[in-house]
Structure formats: C-alpha cells, structure tokens
What we know:
heterodimer, A: mainly beta, six-stranded mixed sheet, five-stranded antiparallel sheet, 11 strands, B: mainly beta, four-stranded antiparallel sheet, globular
Amino acid sequence: EDQVTQSPEALRLQEGESSSLNCSYTVSGLRGLFWYRQDPGKGPEFLFTLYSAGEEKEKERLKATLTKKESFLHITAPKPEDSATYLCAVFYNTDKLIFGTGTRLQVFP
Amino acid sequence: DADVTQTPRNRITKTGKRIMLECSQTKGHDRMYWYRQDPGLGLRLIYYSFDVKDINKGEISDGYSVSRQAQAKFSLSLESAIPNQTALYFCATSVAGQPNTEAFFGQGTRLTVV
C-alpha cells in the first residue's frame, strides 16, 4: 500500500535543542518529496523539494535530506517561532500528491 | 492578493444541505486538488484535476463532487452534507511536468455540519 508515515507525532524541544523529524515512504516511482510547514488554521507553506537519494536542501535552521526509503528534516538550534506542524508529501507514479499526518513541533524558550 | 483563494473561509451548514466550496488561482497552473484535513488523519485527497477536461477521484471522494469550470477555478460540492464532513478543506495547485514541482495551498475553508 502506498503510504507516507511521519514520526514522531509530536515533539517538544527547548530553544536551542537540535533534533530531527522523520518521513518514511513506501511508494513506487518516487517523483518528488516535499516538506511543508503549517501554522494553526492556515494552509501548508512550502519549504523544500527533494528528488533523488542523497540530495540535501537547507534553509535557515532547517535541513532536509533524502534516502531511498525516508527523509529527515533536521532542525538546528530551534527558536520558538519554528513551532508548527511539519508535513511531508510525495508525488509518485500515479501522479497524486499524498501527505503524511505531520509532526507537531513545539519549541519552548 | 493570495495566489490561491478559497471561499468561503468559514461555513456552518445543516445536515442534508447542499454546499459548494470554491477555489480560484492566479498562478496559471494546470493541476488543482481538493484535500480535507482532520486531526490525527492529516491531509487526505478528495479529487484532483490535471486540466479542464480531466477529473480524478482521490482516496476519499464518496459524498463529494467537483467541477473544473476553467483552468483557474475548481469547486467542491457536498450534495447532502453530513456531520462527519466537518473538517478543514484545502485547495491546492501545481504546475504539470517532470520533475513534479511543489503544490501551493489556499488558506482553507473551515466547514462545520450541524
């Protein structure tokens, strides 16, 4: 079954405490993996696209990496404004875009 | 102005009523999508359209219908609303082509069926 799984469901960090979010997928013919940030009551906001294993993208305190089975979103020295739900999504053979259930991140001062 | 606009932003309706959610985009994208979001279930695909003449069911299309009136407009209808259709609904767009590029989302419509 085509599936995208994110872990953990929720993560509480102290400001400055680095960590990683995981997105594992079981789809055939991956055509792109996307990371989004979603704030409460708002639409997802695009962060990164990764297309092939070994690829990495960085933006401020965030770094996304991709292997053949999973992607990681590394958060270095997070700040309270990084608190949000982080969503992973994949395009694959059927050309549909499917999402994981997200990781809710809270960063405390 | 937002690139992907959803109307209404909030709606409360009664069980059995017909309701339409509208989405318009100024990005010039061919592909449009409707998702619903429920706590703990994430974003689930209802319908998607790759161009005006192409409509496809997603994973949870039962109880919903769509219309692609133009490249820029994609509406979602609930023919007879029921309480378990209470959710946050999102429209999204993307450009066709390989490799696939990211989807852009509207701000959402919060629908409550009472």
